[in-house]
Amino acid sequence: DARVTQTPRDKVTEMGQEVTMRCQPILGHNTVFWYRQTMMQGLELLAYFRNRAPLDDSGMPKDRFSAEMPDATLATLKIQPSEPRDSAVYFCASGSDAPSEAFFGQGTRLTVV
Amino acid sequence: AQSVSQHNHHVILSEAASLELGCNYSYGGTVNLFWYVQYPGQHLQLLLKYFSGDPLVKGIKGFEAEFIKSKFSFNLRKPSVQWSDTAEYFCAVNAYNQGGKLIFGQGTELSVKP
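Output (structure tokens, whole complex):
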């Protein structure tokens, strides 16, 4: 059963620490999305990649967030330094050639204290 | 600004009631449209999608949606809801002229009373 895998599932960290979230897209998918979900803002698109190249990261605070795809099987989202306002659930999703549906991972629940 | 709007933030229904959740988008050109569902504590799952063809699409669990191009709308419907339909519902748009971005509405929380 193909699925998007995200690690860790839960992360509690102190303000100022670096946080790295990982995503393994479904094999064969060439599009990866990163979303942040909060009660106030809903689902915000942070960044997305096609064929490992970043297409749009305008939704991401550039000073502290970075997203990369070191290879086709791994996408990472880093926050450095983390702040309490970054507390949210971060979802990764993957899809085949766009436009297409996206398949979501289980999410990483981040709490910054 | 281009966006996806869901009109209802929270809908409360009794079991067996009919459901209609509104979704409007502001992107021009060709679009693909989706409804996703998120059960409490879970990830988003696809309910149904529209790419082309018949504007009335049927999805899983008895849901359907109608694409009305002239109204830029893609409303979700279900004739008779069940308690197990309690969840948050998201409309999403993938516009060809947006380079493949998948943009979500704010979501509608549905509570079904047994």
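The CA atoms of residues 15 and 105 of chain A lie 25 Å apart.
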